[in-house]
Amino acid sequence: MASTIKVKAKVSGGVADVKSLMLHPMETGARVDAETEAVVPMHFITQLTFTNNDKVVMVANFSTAVSRDPYFSFKFSNASVGDTLKVAWVDNNGGTDEIESVLE
Amino acid sequence: MHIGKRMFIKGGLAFAALVALPRALLAAVWPEKAFNVTTASEAMNELLGSDQTVHSDEISLKAPEIAENGAVVPVKIKTTLKNVQSISIVVEKNPRPLAATVEILPGTLPEFSSRIKMRETSDVTVVVKTDSGLFSTSKEIKVTIGGCGG
Q: Which bin fits B148, alpha (ψ -120 to 50), beta or left (φ > 0)?
């Protein structure tokens, strides 16, 4: 299956600028399915973690109030071109995905 | 049940080891209670131990004044405060006000961008926790179409 995560990280002056996009429904538990008229259960990413060369550089905790297909960007220092950045998420149903990317 | 002295000491040592865990490891726990409460004040008390913050001009929250679609409200947060430990977004009038909380680890810059959902027009507060306390800034964002059913 194709990854649910897209990430792009560019280094400039030792600082990595990370932009990421996850494919996830981020269901609030309040939405009613138009066809079945049933309430769609909560389903959302709870935690997004970025690890650069085995060092955790960001832990973002989300609620259902983060938009569908979450976008998240941030910066960290002490970065070098060629570092391996791992992006991983977990959701409230125990779903997970992760991807590794190389800093440009 | 009787707990022997040796057992008691062992327990104490285990507890001390747990307390000494690096913040990065402890940070990996998703703060369920803070996310599930229904008022901004409860969320902040749960997450940060207090709902009292000092207003700071050193925090910037960039977001549209009017969000046409409450399901996708772009937010950009940045602070020049020093020794930042976490940054949280609280949407006062959302059913569960705490939208996100981000751990700022050593070496990570105290800023991030994302997109959030808003049920209706509301004050949005950014709370920055530093080693010297809690600081915040708030901004009202008007919402044309609410984004919690979407």
A: alpha
Of B35, B108, B149, nearest to A31 by CB-CB distance is B149
Percent of chain B with pLDDT over 70: 80
Interface with B, mutate which of A40, A63, A80 (most B CBs under 10 A): A63
How is residue B87 written in tokens? 């940054």
Asked if residue B9 has pLDDT above 90, the reply is no
At B14-42, the pLDDT tens digits run 555 555 554 445 447 999 999 999 999 99
Per-residue pLDDT tens for B76-90? 999 999 999 999 999
The residue written with tokens 């070098």 in the block is A80
Cα separations in angstroms, B35 against A63, B31, B46: 6, 6, 9
- DSSP 8-state symbol, A103: -
Domains in chain B (CATH in brackets) are: 29-145 (2.60.40.2470)
CATH of region A5-102? 2.60.40.10
For residue A9, the surrounding DSSP H or E stretch is: strand A5-12
With b for 16 or more beta-carbon neighbours within 10 A and e for fewer, the B7-31 pattern comes to eeeeeeeeeeeeeeeeeeeebeeeb
Q: Could you tell me the two tokens for B126? A: 């950014």
Smallest Cα distance from A88 to chain B, Å:
12
Residues B150/B143, Cβ–Cβ less than 8 Å: no
Distance CA B143, CA A32 (A): 21
Q: Give me the residues of chain A with pLDDT under 70, please.
A: 1
Residue of B nearest to A60 (CA): B102
Q: What is the ipTM of this complex?
A: 0.94
Give the pairing of strands B133-145 and A96-102. unpaired
